[in-house]
Amino acid sequence: MERLRIDDPASPAEATGPGGDFTRAADPWALFAAWMAEAEATEPNDPNAMALATAGADGLPDVRVVLLKGVDARGFVFYTNTESAKGDELRENPQAALVLHWKSLRRQVRARGPVSPVTREEADAYFESRARNSRIGAHASRQSRPLADRAILERAVAEVADRYGEGPVPRPENWTGFRIAPVSIEFWQDGPFRLHDRVRFTRDGGSSDGGAWRGARLYP
Hints:
alpha+beta
């Protein structure tokens, strides 16, 4: 299983708060790294799967499951075709929300905030790390557009494979990453009789950059 890249993870003792009480943790990024490490050990597959919610200019919400591919103090990173439905919506309304749900641990993490593209260098580096067939597929797929039958897609894949042969497969211009810079991050742990434990972190001043993180315990 591919491990999620988390920059500068803290030790579990630093991350999970005094006495292991995560609702008293000081740093949401350290807590996220600790929880993700546990999920990678317990989830049967794709511990980095997350529901990603966006909305276009009409304000109608849209949601789908994508893979979280990077985390650091700047935010949560995922990759997509910019001409997909989510790409169109992010262009019209560059903000999003996400949730990761780990059933094996009975935990959730939620976050929301403005969205911006990653740098070309970041996108190129991640694209190069993908399996070759996945890179070919990124060229062949007109993501979210109507497809008459699968044979058309398979022919497109074969054509791209022939075009590049054994040479490098470059990143398409319409394929890149996006970073959600959260204004809030919430951690949820299942409790008996729906008496769950929750803590929500927000930045001083309410912005997505600058300002110290402050945690507040929430009612279930």
